[in-house]
């Protein structure tokens, strides 16, 4: 493996020629694997620490995005980290279906059980590969490969995964959350106008039941089951493109780039994001991470978790504050899992996906537009 990821010094194209045979041997994104001895995964916690970058010293970054030159220089090391994560993906699968690992032992010998940390690592890798497939493939083209980097520099987080942006994750998350806030009001207004179609007294009664308390920057703590029922019963299956773009921005997509993407792709991508949120929420609750106030999550993990859900994150928010916001979010979701059939009950439903994606915007704007209460 060390030979496979040894790079020449004249650019990312040479590194990609080393990586090419590995990627060519795979049939689809998300099923990547490397052949490795199962014994190397006998201690899953050890590999998990290698897989996480949180144990590394944080790089103090003031600016939000890397320059074109920085992207070119860091590309080979980013590929190295990506390959390492692909290895870990396969190792996690091998460990899950082996009786000889500490996960199964701690879960009464249940074969196939994967803890939340490793499950989210697998989900994140699939999201990352979806991002990097095109730019990494283009960078492999001799002579012209480097021409992709000025385009990547325009929106690095849209084209590249965290493997290539080490040290920039928190500033980028800060800017992305700021962009999301600009779309929250329009997104929430559409939700309220869409679902509040009954008489004024009924609307006011619904609103009184939804809001419970305030949670600062994350908005209100709402009655999750009541809000879920409201969305599930009344949300339409067809959404106008203009509103679809707002939801995409709330979900973390680049406002400029998403405007030129086809609606079919946006809708598919939103469904994938909602699915990952539902699965991760379920795992966090199942593994008692929620009960512990999310203190067991590393700084990298809590930043990724909040960014995925549209919760407050960035340079001006401490990691402990982020953990608190995630815990409050899980407190809203837990009754829904308990009363609506668990993750199986939520997966596959368009209304459930829209509920999850609208939730951060709704919490910050629990008061519907005035004209909906007439």
Biggest sheet: strands, sense, closure? 2 strands, antiparallel
Oligomer classification? single chain
Rounded mean pLDDT is 77
| Poorly predicted spans | 1-61, 370-374
Report the radius of gyration as a whole number of Å. Answer: 22 Å
SS element count, helices: 17
Shape, principal axes of CA atoms = globular
Strand fraction band?
A: under 5%
Number of strands: 2
Q: Helices and strands, in N-to-C order? A: HHHHHHHHHEEHHHHHHHH
Whole-number count of domains: 2
Structural class: mainly alpha
Kindly state the percentage of residues in helix: 55-70%
Strand order of the largest sheet: 1-2
Q: Termini separation (Å)?
A: 67 Å
Task: Describe it.
- The protein is mainly α and 374 residues long.
- The protein has two domains: 156 residues, no CATH class; 202 residues, no CATH class.
- It has a two-stranded antiparallel sheet with strand order 1-2.
- A hairpin with a 5-residue loop joins strand 1 and strand 2.
- Helix 5 packs antiparallel against helix 13, helix 8 packs across helix 11 and helix 14 packs across helix 15.
- The protein is globular.
- The protein starts with 11 loop residues before the first helix and ends in a 10-residue tail after the last helix.
């Amino acid at each position: 493996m060390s030979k496979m990821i040894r790079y020449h010094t004249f650019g990312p194209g040479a590194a990609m020629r080393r990586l090419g045979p590995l990627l060519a041997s795979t049939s689809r994104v998300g099923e990547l694997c490397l052949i490795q001895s199962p014994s190397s995964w006998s201690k899953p916690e050890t590999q998990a620490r290698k897989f996480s970058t949180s144990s590394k010293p944080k790089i103090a970054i003031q600016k939000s995005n890397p320059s074109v030159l920085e992207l070119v220089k860091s590309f080979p090391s980013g590929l190295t980290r990506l390959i390492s994560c692909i290895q870990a993906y396969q190792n996690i699968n091998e460990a899950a279906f082996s009786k000889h690992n500490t996960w199964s032992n701690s879960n009464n010998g249940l074969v196939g059980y994967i803890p939340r940390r490793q499950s989210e690592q697998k989900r994140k890798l699939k999201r990352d590969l979806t991002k990097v497939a095109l730019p990494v493939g283009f960078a492999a083209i001799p002579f012209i490969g480097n021409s992709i980097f000025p385009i990547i520099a325009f929106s690095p987080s849209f084209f590249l995964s965290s493997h290539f942006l080490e040290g920039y994750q928190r500033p980028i998350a800060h800017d992305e959350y700021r962009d999301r806030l600009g779309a929250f009001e329009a997104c929430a207004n559409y939700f309220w106008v869409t679902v509040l179609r009954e008489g004024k007294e009924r609307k006011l009664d619904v609103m009184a039941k939804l809001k419970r308390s305030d949670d600062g920057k994350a908005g209100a703590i709402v009655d999750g089951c009541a809000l879920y029922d409201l969305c599930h019963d009344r949300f339409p299956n067809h959404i106008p493109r203009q509103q679809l773009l707002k939801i995409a921005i709330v979900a973390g997509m680049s406002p400029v780039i998403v405007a030129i993407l086809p609606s079919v792709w946006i809708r598919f991508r939103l469904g994938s994001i909602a699915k990952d949120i539902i699965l991760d929420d379920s795992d966090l609750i199942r593994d008692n991470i929620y009960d512990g106030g999310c203190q067991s999550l590393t700084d990298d993990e809590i930043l990724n978790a909040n960014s995925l859900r549209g919760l407050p994150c960035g340079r001006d928010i401490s990691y402990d504050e982020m953990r608190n916001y995630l815990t409050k979010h899980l407190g809203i979701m837990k009754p829904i899992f308990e009363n609506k059939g668990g993750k199986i009950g939520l997966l596959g439903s368009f209304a459930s996906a829209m509920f999850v994606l609208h939730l951060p915007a709704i919490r910050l704007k629990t008061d519907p537009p005035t004209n909906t209460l007439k």
